[in-house]
Design brief:
This protein has about 850 residues and is α/β, with parallel strands linked by helices. It has an 8-stranded mixed beta sheet, with helices on both faces. Strands 1-10-17-14-11-13-12 form a 7-stranded mixed beta sheet, sandwiched between helices. Helix 14 packs across helix 15 and helix 16 packs across helix 17.
Length: about 850
């Protein structure tokens, strides 16, 4: 093994009997530990005040010596000590160690409470609990009657449960328990900030340490990490003494590394796994010391950073990675991300090698990268799904996070997202207050999504399958397909849980250890909820009134999706508006509706890893009260009609869609008004007569201002006064023409109506009696188009408006083609006419072309056969 070597001293214990160790095989008295020197200051602080912060390095003895040292303090007066640990494994280990130091069994003076495992008795004075247990206790009894001090151990981990536990404890003390004492203990804590929040002194334990030689290596990518770790372990076994603790980001990497090491281990060396999903027995084996003359390699997640000391460790190999949940309020999804650890975590890990003597730490990253690591890991409360937190607060009667004191205030976006989800699940009422259903959900002690699913399914007679699904969701996947990747359908997991042999016949590969844990968890949930249990042998025979998809949709109503595209693509639009795709073609790809439980969190198009199909009937049965029916009115320009588009939607999903002709309504009227405003008055079905009328009135308005202005601009500005009443009771503009004529006429007074035909006649009557419509488009020069022969004998140009405006004459050939435009007919007869006559006479020989048109009789016909001019 090569790399930069650098001596490094870590605070820690010189013995294997530190507070964090689980060593039930040892007997005799415990040696003094570094924290003992700080205990007088702790006692003094708690005698005069209510809070204290203890900073003590790993191995100083804080987890076991401090609670025992406070047990007989006069202010405690026989009350209990509650100490919170972030993990179940640590809680059991610490309780067992303290009981060992007292020469008792666990459950006598010292006991513990963790999920699914409680060991306390009537004489128990010290209870070591996981953080969620404290929240439940505060909900049931905000006074914490019988508790004298609450100790938050390893507070530097800043879990959401620790944050809410501390906030609620401070709240309860401020309201009902002024005598309650609170202590925060940590190895790598920003003590000043916590002390400021608690208004408390900081007591520091210096500790003792052996030097740890740190070797920096080259960075490795995620794909080659297991192989690099395996090679590093083999070299360390040859070159170093002591057991080896390897830090890996998660269970997958642990299993991959173990697989590479198993065939290479020398005699007398055993491989142990250590992560939260392991059974209690397997975890205890990893912590227990190796047999005399033997060595062990412990492959661990960050669970071994704090709270636990693994006996015999002399070497640490650190990947520098951790897998943490990251929640996006935008997408409403949480996904695990592999991230770089902080400098504080790196120091914690390396310090594990310096407990018994000088140690060695191999860091799989270059030394220059060490300086770029964050000082501390970000608190979980800033990046987690806050639905459990908001439900816990609501159950405690707190509707606003601002009512509590926080080290870091929960982000507003995540709080809003959580509140909306809880309202959707029926846990919160319209004002954010907790409902009866919400209180029942809080009692189940699982994520609110899962709690809602369990409770509603139980009422519907589907409690058994709901417990199976809840357990599947809690554990890692235990099913793999023949090619290593199983379909996403959760129904496959339910079937595999109930019949392993049937699953294997289908070509599925099972992780039997995980499957056994799922079965155990499912049975425990049934017992907790009073659901009739059934043994494993008969699970496959149990039927359910609800499908797996209908049950799963209760937990993830916001992730119901409808297929888009072909049935082979596996693309879905989720209720929350996000896209989601199956990772590969499978039966679920053709489902019309699905519900997605596990996604990778991508905001635009998430990948679906776990889902179930739904039918429309199931949606109608369970979610009809959440459907939204919307009617939008659009315009059909072809039929001049308002058309209503009706949609039934579930969030962003369109379930039903139809179109019909709108009925008369305010919405239809508004649409027609807006269409006309947007497209102009040309959108109205004006008749030719009405358009002509408007032009005639416009001509008179241009000359006489007392006449109304009926131009487009004027009418458009007055739509509300003249058009809206006309549209009332209509959904279409079709057939509106006659009424438009009436509206325009109504704008004239009685005198103007009687004068209109005289001043601006609609037609000009030619000398032949032919009626020709006058064109008033040009208000300054109205015109008329008439055949030249029909104007013979007329000496003066016709005029209108009391003979004040001469008409512009468009004189036409017999074929009605323009030949002359004039406003001086007499002058035309005297001059230009002869040029026109010369040109057209040969072209139209059947028509008369007199030499004196001013005195010739007008005609509309060709000359009689046999006559000539």
């Amino acid at each position: 093994m090569t790399g930069a070597v650098k001596p490094y001293s870590f605070p820690g214990a010189m013995t294997s009997t530190d507070s964090d160790a689980l060593s039930v095989t040892r007997s005799g008295s415990d040696h003094a530990l570094p924290v003992d020197e700080a205990i007088p200051a702790l006692r003094a602080a708690l005698r005069v005040g209510q809070n204290v912060v203890l900073q003590a390095p790993p191995g100083a003895g804080k987890s076991t010596h401090v609670p025992l040292a406070l047990l007989h303090e006069p202010w405690l007066a026989g009350s209990r000590i509650l100490m919170l640990e972030p993990r179940r494994l640590a809680a059991r280990a610490v309780a067992q160690r303290m009981a060992f130091l007292l020469g008792e069994r666990t459950g006598e003076t010292v006991g513990y409470r963790v999920r699914r495992d409680t060991l306390v008795g009537p004489r128990t004075r010290i209870e070591v609990v996981t953080e969620g247990i404290l929240t439940r206790m505060l909900q049931h009894d905000p006074t914490l009657e019988g508790v004298g001090v609450v100790i938050f151990d390893e507070f530097h981990e800043r879990s959401v449960h620790a944050e809410i536990g501390l906030a609620l404890a401070l709240h309860s003390r401020a309201l009902v328990r002024p005598d309650l004492r609170i202590m925060a203990m940590s190895a790598t804590l920003d003590g000043a900030r916590v002390a400021e929040l608690l208004d408390a002194p900081v007591v520091t334990s210096v500790g003792r340490s052996f030097p740890v030689e740190v070797t920096y290596m080259q960075s490795v990518d995620a794909r080659s990490l297991p192989a690099t770790i395996a090679s590093s372990v083999m070299r360390s076994l040859e070159n170093d003494r002591g057991d080896i603790l390897v830090f890996l980001p998660g269970g997958r990497e642990i299993r991959q590394t173990a697989s590479m090491l198993e065939s290479r281990m020398p005699p007398g060396v055993r491989i142990e796994h250590l992560y939260g999903d392991l059974s209690r027995q397997a975890q205890d084996m990893a912590i227990a010391p190796a047999a005399a003359g033997a060595r062990k390699v412990v492959l661990s997640t960050p669970i071994a950073e704090t709270s636990l000391t693994i006996e015999g460790i002399g070497v640490v190999i650190d990947s520098g990675l951790a897998r943490v949940p990251r929640f996006s309020p935008r997408s409403g999804m949480t996904r695990l991300q592999t991230v770089r650890i902080s400098r504080a975590s790196a120091d914690q890990r390396a310090g594990r090698a310096g407990r018994l003597g000088p140690g060695r730490c191999y860091r799989l990253w270059p030394e220059h990268e060490q300086h770029h690591l964050a000082e501390y890991s970000p608190p979980e409360i800033l990046q987690a799904d806050l639905a459990p937190l908001i439900l816990e607060l609501a159950a405690a009667g707190i509707g606003d996070v601002a009512e509590l004191c926080w080290l870091d205030t929960p982000p507003a976006a995540a709080v809003t997202q959580a509140s909306q989800l809880l309202a959707l699940l029926g846990a919160l009422g319209p004002r954010g207050n907790i409902t009866r259903h919400g209180r029942e959900m809080a009692e189940v002690a699982v994520h609110p999504r899962v709690a809602h699913m369990l409770l509603v399914s139980r009422e519907g007679g589907a409690g058994a399958i709901a417990c199976d699904i809840a357990a599947i969701l809690e554990e890692r996947d235990f099913v793999r397909g023949a090619n290593g990747t199983a379909d996403a359908d959760i129904a496959l997991r339910v079937d595999a849980l109930r019949s392993a042999s049937q699953a294997q016949q289908m070509g599925l590969q099972l992780d039997h250890g995980v499957r056994a844990r799922v079965l155990t968890e499912s049975t425990a949930l049934m017992r907790q909820l009073g659901i009739r249990s059934y043994d494993r042998k008969h699970r496959a025979a149990v039927t359910s009134p609800m499908s797996a998809g209908a049950v799963l949709a209760l937990a993830y109503p916001d992730r119901i999706g409808r297929r888009r595209g072909s049935s082979l693509e596996g693309r879905f639009l989720l209720r929350n508006g996000r896209g989601a795709n199956l990772t590969h073609p499978q039966e679920l790809s053709s489902a019309q509706y699905i519900v997605a439980a596990e996604l990778d969190g991508d905001a635009q198009s998430a990948r679906i890893f776990l889902a179930a199909s739904l039918t429309r009937a199931e949606l109608d049965l369970r979610f009809a009260d959440q459907f939204q029916t919307t009617d939008t009115t659009d315009w059909d320009e072809e039929t001049l009609t308002a058309v209503t588009h009706s949609q039934v939607k579930l969030g962003a999903i369109i379930l039903d869609e139809s179109q019909s002709r709108s009925t008369a309504s305010d919405a239809a009227t508004e649409l027609m008004i807006s269409v006309i405003r947007r497209g102009g008055l040309r959108m109205l079905p004006w008749s030719n007569a009405t358009l002509s009328l408007r032009k005639r009135i416009a001509f008179l308005h241009a000359r006489h201002r007392e006449w109304p202005d009926v131009s487009d601009d004027s009418l458009d500005a007055r739509l509300e006064t003249w058009l809206r009443p006309l549209l009332a009771g209509r959904a279409s503009l079709a057939g509106l023409g006659p009424e438009l004529d009436g509206v325009i006429n109504a704008m004239l007074d009685w005198r103007q109506r009687s004068e209109l035909e005289r001043l601006a006649p609609q037609y000009y009557v030619a000398p032949t009696g032919t009626r020709v419509e006058i064109d008033y488009s040009d208000t300054e020069s109205p015109s008329v188009a008439v055949r030249l022969q029909e104007m013979f004998g007329l000496g003066a140009t016709p005029a209108i408006d009391n003979e004040a405006v001469t008409l512009t004459l468009h004189l036409l050939s017999p074929a009605r083609r323009p030949v002359q435009v004039t406003r001086d007919l007499a002058g035309f007869w005297r001059s230009s006419y002869f040029e026109v006559r010369k040109e057209l006479r040969g072209r139209y020989p059947k028509h008369v072309w007199p030499e004196d048109p001013a005195s010739h009789k007008p005609t509309a016909r060709a000359k009689p056969r046999g006559k000539s001019t």
